[in-house]
TrEMBL record:
Domain 1-deoxy-D-xylulose 5-phosphate reductoisomerase N-terminal: 7-135
Gene that this polypeptide is encoded by: ispC
Residues reported to bind Mn(2+): 153, 155, 227
Source organism (scientific name): Pseudaquabacterium rugosum
GO molecular function: 1-deoxy-D-xylulose-5-phosphate reductoisomerase activity
Enzyme class per UniProt: oxidoreductase
Keyword line: Isoprene biosynthesis, Magnesium, Manganese, Metal-binding, NADP, Oxidoreductase
Protein name: 1-deoxy-D-xylulose 5-phosphate reductoisomerase
Length: 395
């Protein structure tokens, strides 16, 4: 019998974390849940521990660890409970873990991703912000560690599935890639009314049920901007080789246009369990639980250009990629602060772009800040402070 893959899920209580547990539960012969982590939702994590019996669980701080410990003890579970950011790095690199699902939201996931990459784990990456901040350093850590990096973002998984396993041929093969975007809940809304939208409206995505941060990012299309940056690193592409097209049905998950202009696309129902199953099983394939596409029931597949007046943030991807290295980290930090301020009703939806643009103007990365994780985290903190100042001015 082959050894079962021991999986650590960072961000287990989130949307991607739960979908990962759903896929894993279909294959007890292939996967073992080794570690589950959560930030605040201790009660939810306790339920997940009861169902999946991990060896280790990690929460944010000592108080929560004590509470989780008590809940688990009441259930007679022997799960070891750890806490804090260092514990996330430790479990991601632990000897009894084979693969890591990076499903934390935001730059908070950078250090554990780097720890997993350096330790040569199979790293399944949903946490796009970690790569947007980490950039070159992140890819170097993957190379040094020698493990596989498997994209879980549906678009990047699509591109990955359209490419051969041998990475060394990718540059010769690809003319450009086309990332598809649903356009989110406001694709048809009059741009001059966008200042009125509420967090509830922004989080009501037509095709996907996701965490609140990525839902707002989909509504502004900053999610696609982050994905353009993510693709630059994952596939080592110059920014001009990455294009975006709106495709409201979310059936084609992205496309590779080859040198000979043959186009390869990956299709499927919009269900994150597919890219998660690809990440878990690659190069094999396993049942994901997603429904199969019914071509006879499909409506038309349509495509349109993204309107720059409605989605001014999209362009910031190419602008920040062409600016000094580290500028994408500034953009990500600004956007995390701006989305949080919008969700807390401290400013308007349309202010998100204002905060992002103003922060990019105010914060210029210095050369030594992109050379180390500490430098990147300092740059991230500097950008967050600048973004907070703009939020206060706008509020
Ligand atoms: P979510 O908000 O549902 O879950 C986030 C998880 O991260 C939770 O388990 C939470 O406890 C944990 N977390 C939050 N802040 C943390 C911190 N500071 N330290 C440690 N843990 C923390 O988010 P999600 O929708 O599951 O998205 C997770 C990541 O996957 C994001 O980067 C998102 O962009 C990406 N992604 C999500 C989807 C999707 O369909 N949900 C699709 C593609 C990519
Ligand atoms: Mg995506």
């Amino acid at each position: 019998m082959t050894q079962r893959q021991r999986v650590c899920i960072l961000g287990a209580t989130g949307s991607i974390g739960r979908s990962t547990l759903d896929v894993i539960a279909r294959h007890p012969d292939r996967y073992v849940v080794q570690v589950l982590t959560a930030h605040q939702r201790v009660d939810d994590l306790a339920v997940l521990c009861r169902d999946h019996r991990p060896a280790t669980a990690v929460v944010a701080d000592a108080r929560q660890a004590e509470r989780l410990q008590a809940l688990l003890r009441a259930d007679g579970l022997a799960t070891e409970v750890l806490h804090g950011p260092q514990a996330l790095c430790d479990v991601a690199a632990a000897a009894d873990v084979d693969s890591v699902m990076a499903a934390i939201v935001g730059a908070a996931g950078l250090s554990p991703c780097l720890a997993a990459a350096r330790a040569g784990k199979r790293l399944m990456l949903a946490n796009k912000e970690a790569l947007v901040v980490g950039g070159r350093l992140f890819m170097q850590a993957v190379e040094q560690g020698g493990g596989a990096l498997l994209p879980v973002d549906s678009e990047h998984s699509a591109i990955f599935q359209c490419l051969p396993e041998d990475r060394s041929s990718w540059a010769r093969r690809i003319d450009h890639i086309v990332l598809t975007a649903s356009g989110g809940p406001f694709r048809e809304r009059a741009p001059h009314t966008l200042h009125e939208v509420t967090p509830e409206q922004a989080c009501a995505h037509p095709n996907w049920v996701m965490g609140r941060k990525i839902s707002v990012d989909s509504a502004t299309m900053m999610n696609k901007a982050l994905e353009v940056i993510e693709a630059r690193w994952l596939f080592d592409l110059a920014p001009e080789r990455i294009r975006v097209v709106l495709h409201p049905q979310s059936i084609i998950h992205s496309m590779v246009v080859c040198r000979d202009h043959s186009v390869l696309a990956q299709l499927g129902t919009p269900d994150m369990r597919v890219p998660i199953a690809v990440g878990l099983a690659w190069p094999e394939r396993v049942v994901s639980g997603a429904e199969s596409l019914d071509f006879l029931k499909l409506s038309a597949l349509t495509f349109e250009d993204a309107d720059a007046r409605r989605f001014p943030g999209l362009q910031l991807a190419w602008e920040s990629l062409r600016a000094a290295e580290g500028t994408t980290a500034v953009l990500n930090a600004a956007n995390e602060v701006a989305v949080a301020a919008f969700l807390e009703r401290r400013m308007r939806f349309t202010d998100i772009h204002r905060v992002n643009a103003a922060t990019l103007d105010a914060v210029l990365p210095e050369a030594d800040e992109t050379a180390s994780v500490d430098g990147l985290l300092a740059l991230d903190a500097r950008a967050r402070r600048a973004a907070e100042r703009t939020v206060l001015e706008l509020g």
